[in-house]
Design a protein that fits this description.
By secondary structure, the chain is mainly alpha-helical. It has 2 domains: 87 residues, Winged helix-like DNA-binding domain superfamily/Winged helix DNA-binding domain (Arc Repressor Mutant, subunit A), CATH 1.10.10; 147 residues, Up-down Bundle (Four Helix Bundle (Hemerythrin (Met), subunit A)). The protein is built from 12 helices and 5 strands. It has a 3-stranded antiparallel sheet. It has a two-stranded parallel sheet with strand order 4-5. Helix 5 packs across helix 9. The longest helix has 22 residues. The chain is globular.
Length: 246
C-alpha cells in the first residue's frame, strides 16, 4: 500500500470496518462468478470496506476473493459503467468518490417511494408491526454495544419491512440500486452516538404512526428521516475531504 492510499485508509470511519473481502464461493446455481464478484464488491463499497478513492488491482482482488482475474475484470467493467469505479490514466483503477448531488438524487427516490409504501401499508387492516418492533430492539442493542454493522443491518431491514407491509417488496430493491452513494454517507455518519439515538427515536415514531395508520404523521416523519443523512453531508465532507468530490 502506498503512502497516499494509507492516508485515505486512515480517514476511514469506525463504521466502515476494514478492507476485508469475502472469498467468492460458487454455489450449485447458474450464477456466474463475475456476478458474485460484482455483488461482493458492491457490498464492500456500500459498507466502506473499500473506501472512496481506494486503489483497485485485478490481481490483488482476485487473490482476496479467491477467483481468477477474468471475473474480476468483468465485474470491474460493470462497476465502471455504473460510475462506481473509475479508471484514471497513469494512476489506475479506484473506487469512485462520494458526490453529494448523487446523494441528493438517491434521497429523492428513496423518500418518494418510502412515503408511498407507508401510505399503501396503512390501507386496509392494521399492519402487523411485530417485526418492526423486534428490529427496533436490535438497533437499541447495537447502539449500546457500538455494533455499527449490526445497527446498519437492522436499519436496512426495518425500512425493507415497511415495503413488505405495503405489498410492494420489490420496490425496496429499486431503492437499493439507487442509494449506494446515500448509504456510504450513512455509514460514514454512524459512529456519532447522538445521531444513532436520533435515528432510533425517529424509527420508533414511524412504527408508531404505521401501527395507528396515521398517514399524515408518517409522511412527515419519513420525509424528515430521509433527509437526515444529507443534512450531515457538508460536515462529513469537511471531516473526510478525501472521500468526496464535486
Amino acid at each position: 500500500m502506498n503512502a497516499p492510499e494509507e492516508a485515505r485508509t486512515s480517514q476511514r470511519s469506525p463504521a466502515g470496518g476494514d478492507a476485508r473481502l469475502a472469498p467468492v464461493i460458487r454455489d450449485r446455481t447458474r450464477t456466474r462468478t463475475s456476478d458474485l464478484v460484482h455483488d461482493e464488491l458492491i457490498s464492500a463499497i456500500r459498507e466502506l470496506r473499500l473506501a472512496p478513492g481506494a486503489s483497485l488491482s485485478e490481481t490483488d482482488l482476485a487473490g482476496r476473493l479467491q477467483v481468477s482475474r477474468t471475473p474480476v475484470r468483468e465485474a470491474l467493467a460493470r462497476l465502471v459503467d455504473a460510475g462506481l469505479v473509475h479508471v484514471v490514466p497513469q494512476v489506475g483503477t479506484r473506487v469512485g468518490l462520494i458526490r453529494l448531488r448523487d446523494v441528493e438524487e438517491a434521497r429523492f427516490v428513496r423518500e418518494g417511494l418510502e412515503v408511498a409504501a407507508f401510505e399503501a401499508a396503512c390501507v386496509g387492516p392494521a399492519p402487523d408491526v411485530t417485526v418492526l418492533r423486534e428490529l427496533l430492539e436490535r438497533q437499541e442493542h447495537s447502539c449500546r454495544t457500538e455494533d455499527y454493522d449490526g445497527f446498519f443491518a437492522a436499519d436496512e431491514a426495518l425500512h425493507s419491512e415497511i415495503f413488505t407491509l405495503s405489498g410492494y417488496p420489490g420496490a425496496w430493491q429499486a431503492v437499493q440500486r439507487m442509494k449506494l452513494q446515500l448509504d456510504r454517507l450513512r455509514r460514514l455518519a454512524l459512529p456519532d452516538a447522538a445521531a444513532m439515538r436520533e435515528l432510533i427515536d425517529e424509527h420508533r415514531l414511524i412504527v408508531d404512526a404505521l401501527e395507528t395508520a396515521d398517514v399524515s404523521a408518517g409522511r412527515a416523519l419519513i420525509s424528515r428521516h430521509a433527509r437526515r443523512a444529507l443534512e450531515r453531508g457538508p460536515g462529513l465532507r469537511a471531516e473526510y475531504p478525501g472521500y468526496f468530490t464535486e
